[in-house]
């Protein structure tokens, strides 16, 4: 079985942690990505890893755990459907692929491997696309759900429907969609040929198999829609089956899920109390959703602050610029959060910083970030890191749409220096 590890997410819901969640050490001495590699080290073929090129240093840092692997570096956020297609094109057509995210918590590895082997057998014998469903103990509208019925003759579940983030409690025939899939490479390629022939032609034309590292060209994929496997394949294909996941599983996507994990697996006590820090300014944000807060560290302690039900508030200050404006949302001695609004066909000035790092997350639009002598395209929900001492600027090339960005500054000085 060939693992395909999806490692391109921005993990922005675990703000203010600066790195994407797959590169965070959450209840482990290893990052979540590293634990995924270790989980698949034995009894599996060498993995194919799909990630964004901006995470190249973080990915390569972890690869010492493996002897063989292939990595697909995406220049922009191409979506899971395209990333998995390119991985499938790197496989022999009858290879069984195990597709899974790099940022999920998986416990009880023996049961996980047994479930994977069962799914592999179904995919091989029935030429089915197999997904893993998780029996949930409480309803959560943030998850996608699978409607599946057990077939006593075949001894697996037949998938009837997928529902993305429903609003109400569902029946016992529903399971959490884990985002883990098993299928033959040829079966997946054939599904893409049927549902999105233009995507197949684009990926087939522009990917060039290389020994270890496959760098996709930005000029070839700049206009691609970042479509998910759920929308393009799972919701349209026939002969979809499900294996019930008999192991602990959680998508560590929010601070609530971190809290749930800490209650169950952390050796440190979990405290429920109000926290007031009088010397720090109050966070103000414009939002229709509740805010789940972040992390605060002291020597020998890690304190998770869960801030619930933060309602509508106004930003502290708005500063007009030639390219648009920015608003300061939160400011302290070593920390600053800004909201940037960049007008169409505008760009920020080129600058660099001696004493701080920056992290930009796109809220809407498409931005082009000049970072040293390289350029990166960033789209909605995409995060890019701007290290200190590196010149940079952000450009909005759209003729009609603004570019909206949240900027996090971490460091000793909030002053900027123009190049």
UniProtKB/TrEMBL annotation:
GO terms for molecular function: mannose-1-phosphate guanylyltransferase (GTP) activity. Residues 314-413 form the Mannose-6-phosphate isomerase type II C-terminal domain. Pfam families: MannoseP_isomer (PF01050), NTP_transferase (PF00483). GO terms for biological process: GDP-mannose biosynthetic process; polysaccharide metabolic process. InterPro entries: GMPP_N, Man6P_isomerase-2_C, Mannose-6P_isomerase_type2, NTP_transferase_dom, Nucleotide-diphossugar_trans, RmlC-like_jellyroll, RmlC_Cupin_sf. Residues 3-266 form the Nucleotidyl transferase domain. This is Cupin domain-containing protein. The lineage of its organism: Bacteria, Pseudomonadati, Pseudomonadota, Alphaproteobacteria, Rickettsiales.
């Amino acid at each position: 079985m060939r693992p395909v590890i999806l490692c391109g997410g921005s993990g922005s819901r675990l703000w203010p942690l600066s790195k994407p969640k797959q590169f965070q050490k959450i209840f482990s001495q290893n990052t979540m990505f590293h634990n995924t590699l270790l989980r698949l080290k034995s009894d599996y073929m060498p993995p194919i890893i799909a990630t964004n090129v901006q995470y190249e240093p973080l990915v390569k840092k972890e690869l010492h755990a493996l002897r063989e692997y292939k990595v697909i570096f995406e220049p922009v956020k191409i979506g899971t459907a395209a990333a998995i297609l390119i991985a499938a094109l790197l496989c022999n057509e009858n290879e069984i692929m195990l597709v899974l995210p790099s940022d999920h918590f998986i416990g009880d590895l023996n049961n996980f491997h047994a479930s994977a082997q069962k799914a592999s057998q179904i995919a091989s014998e029935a030429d089915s696309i197999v997904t893993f469903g998780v029996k949930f103990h409480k309803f959560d509208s943030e998850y996608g759900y699978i409607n599946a019925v057990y077939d006593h003759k075949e001894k697996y579940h037949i998938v009837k429907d997928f529902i993305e983030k429903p609003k109400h409690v569902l029946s016992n025939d529903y399971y959490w969609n884990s985002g883990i899939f098993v299928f033959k490479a040829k079966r997946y390629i054939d599904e893409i040929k049927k549902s999105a022939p233009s995507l197949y032609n684009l990926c087939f034309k522009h990917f060039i198999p290389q020994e270890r590292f496959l760098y996709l060209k930005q000029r070839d994929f700049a206009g691609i829609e970042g479509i998910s496997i759920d929308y393009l394949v799972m919701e349209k294909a026939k002969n979809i089956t499900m294996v019930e996941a008999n192991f602990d599983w959680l998508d560590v996507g929010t601070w609530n899920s971190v809290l749930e994990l800490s209650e169950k697996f952390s050796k440190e006590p979990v405290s429920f109390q109000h926290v007031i820090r009088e010397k720090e300014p109050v966070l103000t944000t414009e939002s229709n959703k509740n805010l789940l807060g972040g992390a605060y560290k002291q020597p020998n302690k890690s304190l998770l602050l869960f801030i619930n039900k933060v309602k509508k508030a106004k930003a502290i200050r708005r500063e007009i610029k030639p390219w648009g404006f920015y608003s300061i949302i939160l400011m302290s001695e070593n920390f600053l959060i800004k909201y940037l609004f960049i007008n169409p066909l505008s760009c920020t000035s080129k600058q660099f910083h001696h004493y701080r790092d920056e992290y930009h997350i796109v809220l809407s639009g498409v931005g082009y970030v000049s970072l040293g002598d390289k350029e990166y395209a960033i789209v909605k929900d995409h995060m890019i890191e701007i290290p200190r001492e590196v010149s940079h600027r952000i450009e909005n090339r759209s003729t009609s749409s603004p570019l909206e960005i949240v900027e996090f500054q971490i460091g000793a000085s909030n002053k900027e220096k123009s190049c």
